[in-house]
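CATEGORY: protein folding

GOAL: derive structure tokens
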Amino acid sequence: MPDAILIAHGAPANPGPQEARMRALSAEVGLLMPGWRLRGATLAANGALAAALRGLDAPLIYPFFMSEGWFTGTALPRALARLGARYRQLPPFGTDPVLDQLVESSALSAGIEPLSTTLLLAAHGSQVSPASRLGAEAIAARLRPRFFDVRLGLIEEPPLLADAARIAGPVLCLPFFALRASHVESDIPAALASANFTGPILPPIGEHPCVPALIAAALARA
């Protein structure tokens, strides 16, 4: 029986909601993959990764992260090594080549006319590693021909979201995040408010209804 674990970072200050979300997401993916054992966990919830590994034989590890970086390259392998796990780690969610299609369909679900609308991607960024910014820039570049414009605004480095959000004309904002946490709930709305942004704010891309199918396809390919 093939095994897989979906792993996100989680919120150390309040791990419960994201831990529940990862368990629910693994169940949704499992419905699409009969014969597989799917589990979900976060790094932030104490003991969650060990519990997810229990009884599984060399599972596939699917990082529910938006980019490669320290967490996928160091923190997650280190945590798995401490538990003595045998596993194979896949590329993270945010690097899936199909993701730009989900971003486009999410924008279109708002009823906009794409060729007259600017899509504002609100992403994380980092003061330590360029991986988050580069990943978001790559998907923005692929999407740009499909909209009037695609702009990138970041939380932790330039171009800062509060500056990028000063846009005239039809515009909507898509949070380029896997999970709904403080950046999505607080930081993005605050930055947009400071820019007097009045366009729609979509749910984070990790909540798109096609995400379970995207993950199932990635696991099947592996």
User: Anything to note?
Assistant: The CA atoms of residues 24 and 62 lie 15 Å apart. The chain has two domains: 3-94+209-221, 99-207. The first strand starts at residue 3 and ends at 8. The helical segments are 15-31, 48-53, 70-82, 99-108, 131-143, 161-164, 182-194, 211-221.
